Amino acid sequence: MAARLVSAYGVGMTDYDRALIERFRANGGRLDAALGGAPLLLLHHVGARTGISRITPLGYFPCPDGSFAIVAANGGSPRHPGWYHNLLAHPDTSVEVGTETVPVRAEDLTGAARESLWNTLVTLAPGLGAFARRSGRTIPLLVLHRLDQAD
Questions:
Q1: Where exactly are the structural domains of the chain?
Q2: Which residues, listed in sequence order, are joined to residue 14 by a DSSP beta bridge?
Q3: Which of 49, 61, 111, 112 is the most buried (most CB within 10 A)?
């Protein structure tokens, strides 16, 4: 089990996450080998109960409108990741993508919108289906809508 750290990046961060964040920033937001080569963003979020600022590296799927789809798979765990609960409580946040920091608003997809995007993402990343089967839960799917683009 990875050591838990209290650092400038957030409370309870693993050594692995801290190293990913440092590599991400040192390489201008590019990490070819991280998460199997999937694009990576740094999700800034605030604890739903604690109010503590945190940063979590996550793989994402770029959407045609410039938004970012993220999946709360939690490695196939039966529990949702903490960042998911934090985004429900505080949906307005920011992400680091490449060398820019982008303000975003998280939308938790449900119903037909979730199913449509989920099917697309499982086609692109079949491991998501395995995570869903292993977890025994409906894995949340969120879209982070950019707030820096004119509507």
A1: 4-146
A2: 4
A3: 61
Q: What distances in angstroms separate CA 9 from CA 42, 67, 88, 92, one per listed residue? A: 11, 24, 21, 19
pLDDT band at 37 (very low <50, low <70, confident <90, very high): low
Range 4-146: architecture per CATH: Roll (2.30)
Q: Which residue has the tokens 């080569």?
A: 37
| Cβ(118)–Cβ(108) below 8 Å | no
User: Which tokens is 74 given?
Assistant: 């939690």
Q: What is the pTM of this model?
A: 0.84
In the chain the beta strands, taken as DSSP E runs, fall at: 4-7, 10-14, 40-46, 53-59, 61-62, 68-71, 92-97, 100-108, 141-146
